[in-house]
Each structure stands twice: as C-alpha cells, then as structure tokens.
Design a protein that fits this description.
241 residues; alpha/beta; Rossmann fold
Length: 241
C-alpha cells in the first residue's frame, strides 16, 4: 500500500498566539512570553478547538491509519485532546521535522521590534524574498521544505494509506508546496491571501496525476461546536496588512 490521503491540522490557539497578536496591536517590540517556543501550551480557546476537532475526528477514525505530531507542546496537546474526545487509544508518532519554523534572532520580536532592532534583516528579506530569507540562527521557508521532504521520504514510507498530522501553519503551507507541487511564486501568491486557521483541517488526496488539494483550512467542525475561529497568522518577518 502507498500513502493516498493526508489530513493536515494546525494546532489550536496557543498562549503564544494570543500574546503575539496582542503585542502587535499594542505596538510592543518584544512579545512577553516566558516559555520557550517548544513549551508553549494551548490557550483555553485552543483547548475548546481541540475538543471540537475531536468531534470531527470521531467520525473519521476508522479511515485514518496513523497519527503524527510536531514535538512542540501546542501540537501534541491538540492531537491528544482530539483523540481523547474521539475515543482515545491511538498511537501518536512525534517527529522533530514537523516542528515550527525557527526564527533565530527574530524570535519573540514583533514587526515593530524587527524594524527597530534589526533593520538590516528587513533589507535582506526585501532583497531575498520570504521563501529564501533565513534570519541568523533561524530557518527560511526553503529550509523547512527540505526537512519536510526528508520526513515524507523516510517517516511515511510504509503501509499507511491515510495519515493525520498536527503541526504548524508554516508546515501546512510548505507541505502544499512540496506535494502539489508549487513554484516559489505560486506558494507566495497562495499564502498572501490564504491563512491556516487554528485547529483547521487541510485535506489532500493522491490520485493518478499526483496530489490534489481537496479542502484548505476547513473550520466547519469549530463552527458546528460553537468553538471560536482564530487565525493569528503573523510572524515577525511578514509585512503587516
């Protein structure tokens, strides 16, 4: 058997998402967050979103063969809570290649903070573009794509036909880039007007002509359970609208 179906889920809203959005609105330079990125937990809203995802999962568990998650707490919590609501008992595989994009010296800085503290990085990003700009100590989108290619080739080589992954917005976007596949300009155009919402589901199916995108960032399960729909799209190297 070969992999035929992927369900890509962004983690539920985290306390980091809330702090980052509030900091951008208030014009702060630094996001006031004590936890390291890997240890940021879900917010109360994020836990409600994960429970709503569990109701969605309950109707599909019989058709999903394997579950994978980013090692970051917010992703593992999302999947664990969803599986618990849907009946529990599944094995979850964790792989560090599904972690969020690392921002290096830009970590915990808002757009204002980047502009004031690292104007040289603003200039480098403008020259290189979002896809290839790598902050010192961090990763570009191209770097994340490379580790995702490795994950797809090694971790998903097997007998599982349908896989669910819970990870991060950049991971979802770059899996689309790798699998559909997309060119750099196509990816950036798509990302400019599409946001991977918290606890949303993106569905891909593999046919005779390759992978096809069936649904992107679907949140009807959240709306059905009256859970808040949240976006929190910003990272400090993305120009504000």
């Amino acid at each position: 058997m070969a992999l035929r179906e992927l369900w890509l889920v962004r983690h539920g809203e985290s306390i980091g998402n809330v702090a980052a959005t509030r900091s951008e609105i208030e014009g702060l330079e630094v996001i006031p967050l004590d936890e390291r990125d890997a240890d940021v937990p879900l917010s109360d809203t994020g836990r409600e979103q994960a429970a709503a995802l569990g109701d969605w999962l309950q109707r599909r568990r019989a058709t999903i063969d394997a579950y994978w998650a980013s090692p970051y707490l917010r992703a593992r919590e999302t999947l664990e809570l969803a599986l618990g609501v849907s009946g529990g008992g599944a094995t979850v595989f964790v792989d560090e290649r599904l972690r969020d994009r690392e921002l290096g010296i830009l970590d915990l800085l808002t757009w204002t903070g980047v502009a004031r503290r690292h104007p040289e990085e603003m200039a480098r990003r403008k020259h290189l573009g979002k896809f290839y700009h790598r902050p010192p100590g961090g990763e570009s989108w191209a770097d994340v794509a490379l580790r995702l290619r490795s994950f797809l080739r090694e971790a998903l080589e097997g007998s599982d036909e349908s896989v669910m992954m819970v990870a991060h917005d950049a991971v979802v976007m770059l899996l689309l880039y790798v699998l559909l596949p997309l060119r750099e300009d196509e990816l950036l155009a798509f990302a400019s007007d599409h946001t991977v919402l918290n606890a949303s589901v993106t569905h891909l199916v593999r046919g005779e002509r390759g992978w096809e995108l069936v649904e992107f960032s679907d949140v009807t399960h959240l709306q059905r359970e009256d859970a808040d729909v949240t976006a929190h799209p910003g990272s400090p190297d993305v120009e504000p609208a």
